[in-house]
From TrEMBL:
Superkingdom, taxonomy of origin: Bacteria
Protein family (similarity comment): Belongs to the CN hydrolase family. Apolipoprotein N-acyltransferase subfamily.
Primary role: Catalyzes the phospholipid dependent N-acylation of the N-terminal cysteine of apolipoprotein, the last step in lipoprotein maturation.
Annotated GO MF terms: N-acyltransferase activity
One Pfam family it belongs to: LNT_N
Top EC category: transferase
Example GO BP: lipoprotein biosynthetic process
Transmembrane segment boundaries: 12-31, 37-58, 65-85, 91-113, 125-148, 160-183, 195-215, 527-555
Domain named CN hydrolase: residues: 228-527
Name the record gives this protein: Apolipoprotein N-acyltransferase
Pathway noted in the entry: Protein modification; lipoprotein biosynthesis (N-acyl transfer)
Lineage: Bacteria, Candidatus Aerophobota
Length: 569
């Protein structure tokens, strides 16, 4: 009855259209793990198809484009609402926000033109393929936009994310659109076969997920796996507390106190009977970078004495660069001095995010430094490869004056390659936004990484939903490559995730209680990892599938049918 009323005219049709529009908007807009795990499942299985059903009564390509554009832009306005946190960015970020909404809305509007009232299985596959290609194309604009592929809705439960080990997150997007197309087909062309295809696909997805996770849990128990003891530090500092911003100087916390706090967090949580293997600090954990010398040796030693007692004297490194430098007869020390002392004190490897300046190349890097106990010659550096526009690099030089108002005066050089560090465990570092890019994280696994370590700072969008969204992107990287993942955040979700995507430890008591936390999370991490098809083939497999489904459907179309899919013809 509903289908006939959607085709009819009058107030009832308008009312049904409005109801379906709002219902689908609520399901898809709030159907992300960061908002609701359960609604995410509904969104993945049927959310989009409800909106497509609302388009039944819409005639003409322009009208379909308009409604698809408006609906999806509104959905993404909720998903990207964290971009409206202007406290530290200023109003300019709103222009970026609305620009992205227009871009993503236009993609969905074009997609809606491709819908028909009756669709075949090959048409369902075509829709899934073309949308996947739309999403993948976002990676090639400026620094790339990797947030919120529709497949993220399946990441709410690891059992539903299993196909990411084969096809990656864009494979999950393919599956979400395909399932919604099957639901739409079951509604528009109701038959036992169409209904069976829809529910059978859902059952298959869930069953394979259970089998996959069950197999690897049993395998991990049977073979026995290595474990490491880890400390993840969350400094919990807002930008105006960590660095001195114009008109906010009274919020600034001295770097001496920042170091004292971090050292104290670890000392309070560390058990005497458990040695640490790895200590991790967040991105740009402390101001002044790795090789500047802003601290007097006398004051720095006072901080170490307060944190560790007189025993600190046995663990400080030799007074030479990059740890110390003499000026006018007095010694001044760097953040590297503190990091090496920490590594020596706990006999633990340390990974810390610090800016760095290359004097020879005159380049600034947003970097992660790796320290090994008692061997300062082993210090290694990873340079961030995916830089954020305006914050880390300028796409337009005339914007220098604007970003300078927010304390951003130097811009970073992009790193060239993935790196793997570590002696007790082979770890692949990534910095902040990089963990949203599947192909970047895959590079580390290909180099032999046993664990991913992400250093993050989500404080620039405070307060907002960004940390939760960022976290669920991170989980997918662990699932895609079958590698556990550690996250140390400034004001984000500091946690450990196993190779099946299960959260094994978290600093906050819930996923929503994190932005004001300071402390250290200390735990043992199981390093079970395994081969995945995604690590081997990357995104090439889902791209091949997507191009094949689009090509097959286009090849079968008659000329007049093919021309009907061209927008605005």
């Amino acid at each position: 009855m509903l289908k006939e009323e959607l085709f009819s005219s009058g107030k009832k049709r308008i009312a049904i259209f409005g109801f379906l529009w709002l219902l689908s908007f609520f399901i898809v807009a709030f159907g992300q793990p960061a908002w609701s795990l359960k609604i995410s499942v509904v969104s993945a299985f049927i959310g989009h198809s409800i909106f497509w059903a609302a388009l039944f009564s819409i005639k003409g390509k322009k009208q379909k484009f308009f409604h698809g554009f408006v609906w999806f832009a509104c959905v993404e306005a909720v998903h990207l609402s964290w971009m409206t946190a202007t406290r530290f960015h200023g109003a300019y970020i709103l222009f970026v926000y609305f620009g992205i909404l227009i871009w993503l809305g236009a993609q969905y509007g074009l997609f809606c033109i491709l819908l028909r009232k009756k669709i075949s299985i090959s048409h369902c596959l075509f829709l899934a393929g073309i949308w996947t290609l739309f999403e993948y194309s976002r990676l090639f604009f400026l620094c790339g936009f990797a947030f919120n592929p529709v497949g993220l809705a399946l990441s709410s439960y690891s059992e539903l994310s299993t196909f990411a080990t084969v096809f990656g997150v864009y494979g999950l997007s393919f599956i979400v659109i395909l399932l919604n197309a099957f639901a739409y087909r079951a509604f528009t062309q109701t038959s036992k076969n169409n209904i069976a295809v829809y529910f059978g696909s859902i059952l298959l997805l869930f069953s394979l997920g259970l089998l996959h996770n069950g197999f690897h849990k049993a395998r991990a128990q049977s073979i026995g796996t290595k474990k490491i003891n880890v400390a993840l530090v969350q400094t919990g500092l807002r930008p105006d507390q960590k660095i001195m911003l114009s008109s906010r100087e009274h919020h600034f916390i001295s770097p001496y106190d920042q170091w004292l706090g971090a050292l104290t967090y670890i000392k309070k949580k560390q058990s005497k009977d458990r040695n640490l293997d790895l200590i991790v600090f967040p991105e740009a954990a402390i101001p002044f970078g790795a090789k500047q010398y802003p601290y007097s040796l006398t004051d720095a030693c006072l901080i170490l004495d307060m944190a560790w007692g007189q025993d600190y004297k046995n663990h400080i490194p030799e007074l030479r660069e990059p740890f110390a430098k003499q000026r006018d007869g007095d010694w001044y020390i760097s953040n590297s001095f503190f990091a090496q002392s920490l590594s020596n004190f706990y006999n633990s490897e340390v990974l810390i995010g610090l800016d760095d300046y290359d004097k020879e190349k005159k380049h600034i890097y947003n970097a992660a430094f790796h320290f090994v106990p008692r061997r300062p010659e082993k210090i290694k550096r990873y340079e961030k490869r995916k830089l954020v526009p305006l914050g880390e690099y300028l796409p337009i030089k005339s914007l220098e004056a604007l970003v300078a108002k927010y304390g951003i005066t130097g811009f970073s050089e992009r790193g060239k390659s993935a790196k793997v560090f570590g002696e007790k465990v082979r770890l692949s570092p990534s910095i902040c936004y990089e963990e949203c890019f599947p192909h970047l994280m895959r590079d580390g696994k290909k180099l032999g990484a046993e664990v991913y370590v992400n250093l993050t700072n989500d404080a620039w969008y405070y307060p907002s939903k960004l940390p939760e969204q960022h976290f669920y992107h991170a989980r997918l990287r662990a699932i895609e490559n079958g590698v556990p993942l550690l996250r140390s955040c400034n004001t984000g979700i500091t946690a450990a995730i196993d190779s099946l995507g299960k959260t094994k430890a978290m600093l906050s008591s819930t996923i929503y209680d994190h932005q004001n936390l300071r402390g250290a999370l200390i735990f043992s991490l199981d390093l079970y990892h395994y081969f995945t098809i995604y690590t081997f083939l990357g995104d090439y497999l889902i791209l091949a599938v997507s191009f094949a489904t689009v090509g097959f459907f286009a090849f079968r179309l008659k000329k007049n049918d093919f021309l009907s899919y061209i927008p605005y013809r």
